[in-house]
Amino acid sequence: MMKKRNVDLVCDIAELISLAEGGRDRRELLQQVVTSVASHMQADVCSIYIYDEEDKELTLRATQGLDERAIGAVKLKLGEGITGRAVRELRPICVGTASRSDSYKFFPGIHEEDYEAFLAVPILRGLRRIGALVVQADEANYFTPNDVKALRAIAAQLATMIENVQLLSEARLEAAASETAAPKKVISESLIKGRSASTGTARGKAFTLDSANSESCVLPDPDAKPHSLEDFERAVEKTAEQIDRLQRQTSEELADVAVLIFSAHLLILEDDQFSGRIKGLIEEGCEAVKAIATVVDEYVEVFSKSKMPLIREKVLDVKDLGNRLTRNLLNEEADTADYQGQIIIAHELLPSDILKLSAENVEGFIVSSGVTSHNAIISRSLGIPMVAISREQADAIPDGEEMLMDAEQGIIYLHPGPEVYDKYRDLDQAWRVLHDAADMKEETRTRCGQRISIFANINLLSDLKPAREFKAEGVGLYRSEFPFIVRNDFPTEEEQYVIYKKLVDQMEGRMVTFRTLDIGGDKMLSYYSNVNEANPFLGMRAIRFSLENKDIFSQQLRAFLRAGADADTRIMFPLVSSVDDFIAARDIAYECMSSLDAEGIAFNPDTKFGVMMELPSAVEVVDELAQEADFLSIGSNDLIQYMLAVDRTNEMVSSLYLAHHPAILRAINRIVRAGLKYEKDVSICGDLSADPRMLPFLLGVGLKKFSIDSVNAPTLQRLVNELNMEEAEKIARTMLALGRISEVEAFLLERNLAPECEA
Ligand code: PEP
Ligand code: MG
Question: Which residues does UniProt assign to the signal peptide (predicted)?
């Protein structure tokens, strides 16, 4: 190995930078810096990322060694990957074997996969983040503390230069902004980095379906032959048949949520104001495609201005209908006109839109308004990948663009090359093997023989099939709100009973945990117009809604109790903030039991009642809650949100949403201790239960019951099999003693055998 000459390097860079004062192009200069560093350090890769304070995002701006198409396209959020962490924590991070590091972010297609040694040094001006200087090498443990020092010296020099140039260009941009019109759809980047909302990969063509945009998204066909009135009438007939078929099919497959889901489509189609008006325009000599687009636009305009949410929600239905009609008109041969082979880009989507588009075979979703928790959950249940990106990024994707979505990592490849497709074929295969439930054992045990139970989270009845496939020991969480969200009115007790009974029957004697309605927060019912809340997450959500609306609550409780007759069922209440909340809710359930008894209707008198541990206030009174309730279930998604005051759906603070925050670790420990003390069952049902990094901690504090999305069950069982309780308990003790986020992160990294050398 040639000797590294770090002192020469620092001098050379100083000279390069002094030339920059003479007005040299910044891109060229950064490129020269990375080339020079890579060559002096004998590193395989050297890259510079520049930090954007507003977006809290790093963008690759120069590289030697990675695919140059990644420049401008690879983006990392603050805290994301080893580089993002170095910049967030304002310190160099040196990792000997990157592939074993939890923080490592892998971007296929940019040739990063061959490098093990990874050294990221933040470029700082005081505490101001400017960017990062990164080197990589294929030989593990290649970088030394001396290299860290040299890169720090270079980073310090780069900081001043970059900051000066940035200030200048910001001033220029400001001046230009007032003169520039809205950006056109131009595509200059081959990769977009967003945030994963539902995992999986999807391939397909981009199709923009923007409900907030009044412009019609009907595809114009430049070669279309003129269409007659008869052609249009045939298209209407065919569209009606398709929708009818779709409705029947969906009602069978998704009985709990798909009742009359396409009814608005049919109503609008049959409305004379709609089809009649299109016919009128065609008779006046307007081309049929144009006539459809015109009337769709008129409807969109009227619907989107409506004061009633129920009407506003129909905007997407009209657009969808217009697309279907147009496709049927243009392509008389095809008989589906669905979204197979297409990835939908939308500003906003409703859970019912997701259901409809899923029935129409859409491949994936890209959403640009942030993702509500219910949208993420429903997409996961339907197995459709979903990625959230910014409005600006979405606007830059032209319709018809070939894309590959890696929703696991939140990456969208635009016009991907064959090497990206090949890579993903292999990754897909590996993913399938990893998530295959066929080989799962009935019982899950640690290496030392400790029995652990894995339950399923159920959102839609269709989740029962994969739950049975992995031999779930029961349902640890049934999110009951979806049948409420997709309807036009509250479902009756009888309608609910039918759904809940199916759930109980299909679990064939295994325990079922019903969670009462959790609406509010980021999902209101469109037919229940509550006051507009300034802080809906702190407002009329979950058990608060149920306690305020006793009739609706009682109907649901009666349906749960009836469905549980002769079965092993439990009921838990979401967002409980006090013992009083819990007792008030359970008292209503007791009243329901008395009335069912008086009416002679069968129900489960042994139903257990539990608390979802999601609020800091509940943690403070956990001892009293554990004494009062039959069981506790940790809802880690909300527990993290409310303990850290970080909105779980807000992109801008996603780097602060930390499951390993010492406060969260200690809260979980307190909850488990209270359960043990009062001999009450404690389980965990939030996404944290599927986080492999945190599993040793969770086992170590004494959690033995996990409720997770079925897709994660094989991995959980495999990881549990590899762990030993004594080791897990030691890990938990160590983590509980740490008071800083950075200490917990360093500990987790260390455990993954990714040596870090502090500079
Ligand atoms: C949770 O908060 O962890 C939870 C399981 O409930 P939801 O995700 O439905 O809010
Ligand atoms: Mg919750």
Answer: none
Task: Looking at the CA of residue 481, tell me the nearest atom of ligand 1.
Answer: 9
Q: DSSP letter for 274, please.
A: I
pLDDT one-digit tens code per residue, 243-293? 888 888 888 788 887 777 788 888 888 888 899 999 999 999 999 999 999
Q: Give me the number of domains the chain comprises.
A: 3
Segments of the chain with pLDDT less than 50: 1-2, 22-23, 167-189, 211-220, 753-759
What distance in angstroms lies between residue 637's CA and the mean position of ligand 2's atoms? 6
Which structure tokens are listed for 143? Answer: 């970088």
Would you tell me the crossing angle of helices 263-270 and 315-330 to the nearest 10 degrees? 70
Asked if residues 269 and 243 have their Cβ atoms less than 8 Å apart, the reply is yes
Phi (first) and psi of residue 164, to 5 degrees:
-60, -45
Rounded CA gap, 30 and 2, in Å? 25
- Bridging pattern class, strands 631-634 and 681-684: parallel
Among all bound ligands, the one having the nearest atom to the CA of 476 is 1
Structural domain including 737 reads 443-750
Contact 418, 426 (CB under 8 A): no
CA distances, 110 to each of 413, 416, 419, 461, 589 (Å): 11, 11, 10, 41, 58
Q: Is 479 in the pocket of ligand 1 (CB under 6 A)?
A: yes
Predicted model pTM: 0.70
For residue 636, which atom of ligand 1 is closest to its CA?
3
User: 686: CA distance to ligand 1 center in Å?
Assistant: 5
Does residue 476 have its Cβ closer than 6 Å to ligand 1? no
Q: Which two tokens stand for residue 586?
A: 């359970």
Q: What is the CATH number of the domain that holds 726?
A: 3.20.20.60
Amino acid at 655: S
User: Distance from CA of residue 115 to its chain's centroid?
Assistant: 29
Residues 492 and 638 reside in one and the same domain:
yes
757 in any annotated domain? no
Name the burial class of residue 584, with classes exposed (0-12), middle (13-18) and buried (19+) by CB atoms within 10 angstroms of its CB: middle
- How is residue 295 written in tokens? 């009337």
Which residue carries 């001043």 as its tokens?
160
Residue 283 forms part of a structural domain: yes
Q: How many helices (H) and strands (E) would you count in the chain?
A: 28, 23
- Residue nearest ligand 1's atom 9 by CA: 479
Domain identity same for 353 and 327:
yes
Q: Is 685 known to be catalytic? A: yes
Angle (CA) 411 414 420, round 5°: 70
Q: Judge if the beta carbon of residue 491 lies within 6 A of ligand 1.
A: no
Residue 437 within a domain: no
CA of 450 to the centre of ligand 1 (A): 27
